[in-house]
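Usage

Read records sequentially. Each one opens with the input sequence:
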Amino acid sequence: MFRLTKCIVIVFLLILVADEAFAQKRKRPTATSHHRGRFKPINISRAKASVVCPVFEDSQYPYHGIGIKVGDPFALTYKFYANKNFSVVIDGGKTASGLYSKYYRENFDTITQPDTLLQDQSVEYLGHVVDKDLVFEGKLLYQRDASKLLKGLQWYVGAGVQYRDTEIQYEYLVEVSFDRTEIDTFDEAFTSLGPTAVIGIEYSYFTIPIAAFMEIEWYTDVVNDPGWQRFQGGVGLRLVF
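and closes with the structure output:
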């Protein structure tokens, strides 16, 4: 979890630095800058200014945002900004299966309980392959302006529901008798469903109409493995229109 959080912070900082560098490049004086007094200043309309450096204007809601989220899960993301305080997010993608390797390994021991084996049989875990690990979630967010800290910044909290569809192939060594062993596989499929809570920040003061976000989620399963819980998180970008 520490590595994931560190990567999230680094990516978010790189986005800010890249945007600042682009903005500085646009402000670089031209060869005719010393003749500035000969020309009238250019007045940019409010609508045009929002394209050059977009911000969420109270009078322009609702907004829509479509983009991508990197982390756990890796997903396509849609956000409906109903007003300045409330929004709805729908994400769909794939979990970071490597982060759940230990959990899937432990599931093998639960699936292959002794009462499922014959008297002279024993099994030994060899490995597993995740064939499918899809995730879909919907969240209702409450957001507040944080421009006093940084122009274009908002923070938000929210809650929702997450659904996961997983298929795993396990490879194992089975002892069929005292002098005979075999390698075999079996497939395990299950679905998970449960509530999720989220906290995050969103930054939208770029020179192009996008919003960058960073968030941490908490999820608990109530269907397949009641009580199992996990922290998730990621960073992402959405095109706002």
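Summary fields computed downstream for this record:
- The chain is about 20% helix and 50% strand.
- The radius of gyration is 25 Å.
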